[in-house]
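[step 3/7] fold_predict: job queued, chain A
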Amino acid sequence: MNAPVRRHFEVEHLSVFRYSEPVRGSVMLLRLHPRDEENQRLLEFRLDIAPAAEAAAMRDAFGNVCHLFNVHREHRETSVRSRARVDSADAPPLPRRMEGDAWAELSRLAAPVRYWEYLSASRFARPGPLLDAFAASHGIARGPDPLETLLETAHALRAAFHYMPGSTAVDSPMERILETRRGVCQDYTHVMIALGRAWGIPSRYVSGYLHLEGAAGEQTPEGASHSWAEFLLPDIGWLGIDPTNDCVADHRHVRVAVGRDYADAAPTRGTLFGGGEADLEVRVKVVESGEPATPGEGRPEAANMVSMGLASSAPDRGGDQ
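[step 4/7] structure written:
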């Protein structure tokens, strides 16, 4: 068997936080470090912070590499720039369908105690009457084969929802997209995770990036981070499925963090001591080695910051997704 072709990507993620009033100090947690795994190798990672701060690296409960830093002096702006080089490859081809009684095998594999965090309801991915009504109205149901069910569900979500940046926020409940049919990648992902868990499939959230190649179904905008879902299946392992773009995750998908939902994998979050309202501008570039790196436009996103001692930060509008 031929070795999979590996592709080399350079990723740059710039987040600039601006505060309406000077802050006395700030603490921030970052999940920007790409994962280093079989189909994705991390070759280099660099983090630059201004005002200058020492970032402490650690692993969270989901195995993500996080960085924590604080600034103990007055400032009106915080800039966080991460640069990474990764190479990735497509996973082995999927079977047309799973063998034997795949649902029974899945029940044995997905022991509730071992995978409880990926089988239970979470803050942004949970069951409810709106989800049940949505699934029934679009013919989304557990079929004879788990793999086919998931792929058909991704296709149904891509058709049912309208991708519209700014239509939801990082703290929007999943019910928002079920009511309006408009949302962004994190909303598509939360709905698909909630459905997978309802069928007894361990399901988790993935944050990262997508290298746009003009493939059929791509609707993720350039200059944005991305998210998709992963599902644990017998003989396959964790399978990434991207309902926003109606595809199986492949070499284009750069994995950064996993968790129960967005709350566990947000690229940035933090606390301000003073500072009034916080605004965030994000620029993301994902280029293949040798591609020209054209300057990207900044995208206004939600700051995902809590302000202590002064006025609360501005309401979320879009989010670092």
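[step 5/7] annotate
The longest strand covers residues 7-30.
Residues 25 and 103 are 52 Å apart (CA to CA).
exit 0
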